[in-house]
Amino acid sequence: MPRAEGDLVRARLAASDGDPAAAASFASAIRGLRELSTPYHLAHGLLDHAGHLSHLHDTEAAQEAIAEADDIAHNLRCQPLLDRVAEITPAKSSVPH
Question: The whole model's pTM is what?
């Protein structure tokens, strides 16, 4: 688990530095979290990745990561994760299109 968390930290740092390798770093970190970590930590990693994807304007991939994290948060009944999901989920427009 520490290795998976370390990979996630490196991905976050790469993203904050604008490193083009950040996408690959996040992909590797998420794989590691799936294999070596807990669902709780995976959900946080997915939300970090969603933030990076949103920054890159990859809304569809970001929403997929958020949805998976939301499912985990509901399964765990973990309010802090649910709160974090709510914070990063774009507000839905109430104006009909």
Answer: 0.86
